[in-house]
Specification:
The structure is a single chain. This protein is α/β, with parallel strands linked by helices. It has two domains: 117 residues, 3-Layer(aba) Sandwich (Rossmann fold), CATH 3.40.50.2300; 98 residues, Arc Repressor Mutant, subunit A (Orthogonal Bundle). The chain is 41% helix and 18% strand. The chain is built from eight helices and eleven strands. Strand 6 and strand 7 form a beta hairpin. The longest helix is centred in the middle third of the chain and has 17 residues. The model has no long low-confidence stretch (mean pLDDT 87).
């Protein structure tokens, strides 16, 4: 489902998706897009940020409050860290900055769809220090405090836990968790932003991480109890 207010872009995206074999619906305003997203069944929501009536951030947040598994890619002409972080913090799986090439967009759509359809074999419970995470229900407990995760965050933590004996590179996470081909040259800070989100949830001090650490020149490593 494409939510985009600029008619030329919306029509072009629909044509591209249909050309690549997808069935596509669309909406031109925020309220119409939210209504369709909440009442329909879509494999993916392609969501612009700047929309009349309701912006993409609010739509993403409202979708996530109903369905934490719905794949969402945000289209944005805004590329500052704060704006990108806001979209991913609300639960978007990825973002694509405008202007974008059609080939890059299609590859990223295919990657998100492929990853959502495969479904990872995840351990039901994941323990990180004193935090116990229920991967199926996308939540965890830190003492008496509940932590809510997105599906993508759980996938990142689970993959890092499965490979806790070594650092995992950003490229490997993009390949194994996001589903991007290893030889696909994609400029994205999606991994770094998801790691920052996770640190705010599982670290006592996100600025001095002890559980999800950066290994300089190698990637990220999750420190789990032996």
């Amino acid at each position: 489902m494409v939510v985009e207010d600029e008619e030329a872009i919306r029509t072009g995206l629909i044509d591209v998706l249909v050309f690549h074999g997808y069935e596509a619906d669309s909406a031109a305003t925020g309220p119409a897009g939210l209504e369709k997203a909440l009442t329909g069944t879509f494999d993916l929501v392609l969501l612009d940020i700047m929309l009349p009536g309701m912006d993409g951030y609010e739509i993403c947040d409202r979708i996530r409050s109903k369905d934490r598994n719905q794949p969402i890619i945000m289209l944005t002409a805004k590329t500052s860290d704060e704006e990108i972080v806001q979209g991913l913090k609300l639960g978007a799986d990825d973002y694509v900055p405008k202007p974008f090439s059609i080939q890059q967009l299609v590859l990223r759509i295919e990657a998100v769809l492929r990853r959502s359809q495969v479904g990872q074999e995840l351990a039901r419970t994941l323990c990180i220090g004193n935090i116990e995470i229920d991967t199926e229900n996308l939540c965890g407990m830190n003492g008496s405090d509940e932590i809510i995760f997105t599906k993508r965050e759980i996938e990142v933590l689970s993959y890092l836990a499965q490979n806790a004996d070594r650092p995992v590179s950003r490229e490997e996470l993009l390949s194994k968790v996001w589903g991007y081909a290893r030889n696909l040259d994609i400029e994205t800070r999606t991994v770094d932003i998801h790691v920052a989100k996770l640190r705010r949830k599982i670290e006592a001090d996100p600025k001095e991480p002890q559980r999800l650490v950066t290994v300089r020149g190698a990637g990220y490593r999750l420190m789990v109890d032996s």
